[in-house]
Structures
1.
Amino acid sequence: MDSDLSKLGNNLVTKLHVLMRISQIYDSKNVALHQFIQESLQTINALIKREGSFSLKIVKDDFFLNGQRLRYSVEGFTSFKYLLTQWKKRFIGEVIFKNPVDERILKDFVYTLINLEEGGKENAPLFQVQLKSRQITSIEVNPLEVVEGEEDAFTLQKEDQREVAKKVFFETIGTIKQVITHIKSRQYADVRKLKRLAQRAVHLVIEDESILLGMTTIKNYDEYTFNHSVNVSIYSLAMGKRMGFSKRTLTELGVTALVHDIGKSRIPREILNKPAALDEEEWGVMKKHPLMGVETILNLKQLGEINPRMVVGIFDHHIKSDLSGYPKLFRKKDVSLFGRIVQIADSYDAMTTPRIYKKTPYTPEQALAIMLRERNVHFDPLLLKIFISLVGIYPIGSLVILNTHELGIVYKPNHDPRWLDRPTLILVDRDGEGKVKKAVVDLTTTDGAGHYPRSIVKTLDPYQYHIDIAKYFL
Ligand SMILES: [Fe+2]
Ligand SMILES: [Fe+2]
């Protein structure tokens, strides 16, 4: 699909999502609706102008725009999921816009849609009749095609673990975003929801950490703060698991990591997004974020969800073990365990993510090398060891070249000390249609004669090879 069409398609899904939400709050005569309707009309009519007519259709768990699958972006995920669930619940599988529409038609369409009974299998023909009775011929609605063996179309029971992990990951990004926006506008921020998501993440990490760890390779440039918080949380949880933390402590650690930078919500955008190095004054402001984070957390209504261990973790996540870093302390104090864990996760994620002032980040292995050099001074050496054993000497997401001249992406490190250099890889390969093939190979596999057919020669920089690592983990 060409990028303009894909952009319009994503836009359409977002607009329909907002519109459905809004129409559940306001009645159809409310003036607040006008602006949203206008914005949606722009997108719909732009698509009609371009495509003549268009169909938005659900096939299994995806939307297809005029027969081509829409790929969602990180920021679009919530909208996709919402629209998909809402349509499926009402057994609506396809909407076709045949001619340009105006405000009245779109309003009628949306309100008829939200008023359909959930679970009503005859909704689509019913909808069609209702549209006709209002003289609307430019929109056609078709029923959901239920795939065989998938009787209960709108339950998500059959998702495998990867799907669940994906959902938790994107949902957490969405929620942390919401919490921060609410804090900024002094609205009620739902910390309990964060806790629930952290609990689910703890579950996933306990079962199979490599799936969530793989998600950390999704480095979304625009959504840095939210994406970063979730990644730091995943790394912290995986470390906590190694250290034998209880589920309860893990959940506390997960939430601490999610909100570790929440103080940044009170730092001006110009400083946060400055494309160059900060001057002294700006640094002064930036260094206040741990303390502001503590203040923010203590001001939350659901303070019951927060305990002192978490508050301290937020406070000292930038204090180094030699007490350099910030905030400046006047008396010697040990950095808390949560603080030390978050610090390692934080530095690693920051170094391996492209930022506005550093577009080519460090490769995973470069980042680990730098952290190792700074151990004793900046990091807890023991915790760093745990972290390295976790991501492996070839960390998850590293691009490697093999003796067979194939390229591979590290998918799962090998934790057996004898085989640290033999992780499981996904081979970088495409099928006849140019689609990414996901062939998984375990480098400890031997041939009949006991030889290893594949070995890693060295790591490569994915940016030089224009390889989007995250694609292989989704
Ligand atoms: Fe921070
Ligand atoms: Fe951070």
2.
Amino acid sequence: MSLNHVRPWRDIYRRKSRQIMVGNVPVGGDAPIAVQTMTNTLTTEVAATVAQVQAAAEAGADIVRVSVPDEASSKALKEIVRESPVPIVADIHFHYRRGIEAAEAGAACLRINPGNIGDEKRVKEVIKAARDHNCSIRIGVNAGSLEKHLLEKYGEPCPEAMVESGLEHIRILQDNDFHEFKISVKASDVFLSAAAYQGIAEATDAPIHLGITEAGGLVSGTIKSAIGLGNLLWMGIGDTIRVSLSADPVEEVKVGFEILKSLGLRHRGVNIISCPSCARQGFDVIKTVETLEHRLEHIKTPMSLSIIGCVVNGPGEALMTDVGFTGGGAGSGMVYLAGKASHKMSNEQMIDHIVEQVEKKAAELDAAAEAAE
Ligand code: SF4
């Protein structure tokens, strides 16, 4: 929960959910909202998949999902799990054997719909494998693959059908006394997703995995996800998120974090506040921000940096940031530290200097946090 009673218009009251574990990552309850992504390499190509998992983890992913479509992938999964710095979720569709193999291979969670894997005996076997290997389950309802009887009942994918599907899968797990599950009700349409998520949030206390499925490319998918997930998160719904983009998984993680950062739900790395620039700019704001985003990727400490083209908004923004730079005249600008004007710096040396100042501030904040523990 992010509460800021001094500014009540910023408060978000998170829905109270049960907490489950995905490996060593708590999901639900008062745990931080976990950011997930999914690999898009062939799972059987272990080195490539592990490299992608590591890159995603380096970018901040708490959990990574890997597809397990065949037996060879189950075998590869074992090696991937061994090399992964974060818990791995195995994505299973229909094949109950893959579910059992993935649990045995060390997956921290199975994404599987118990109603779609065959008769009761098979369901029981998968649940037993999950239980025996400390593996949680994510029920993943998708508007595009709703059960036939629900489509017949409702005529088309609609929020009620998605909630009913989710509750049917939940019932199967509960009937088997299995409670380590979370649920998602995804659709590619933001209205359908948002309504289905609100419905399921009311109907269960299970942790919720948020996602807008098949959201699109980097720009359109980011906007769709920010609107869909952003609205739900703002309502307090969602314990873990995955932004689905037709892009590198690292981009999904970055976008996921930016959505959470915008709502004050999680903080990681440098939050750059920059102006759009105009004829008044004292230096090239756009190019500078692009370079700084890249040069500061290694900073994980939550902190803020303002890069503002001129004195119209520069001093005001710098007041609220850890490090600031405001463009001035004659090829130089003012550096602000902890909100106060500190010293002048030439435009040529400004990027290296800001990187240095940010690294110094991050080290100070890390040391202060360590001392407070
Ligand atoms: S802060 Fe200055 S340079 Fe930036 S957009 Fe505003 S007026 Fe233009």
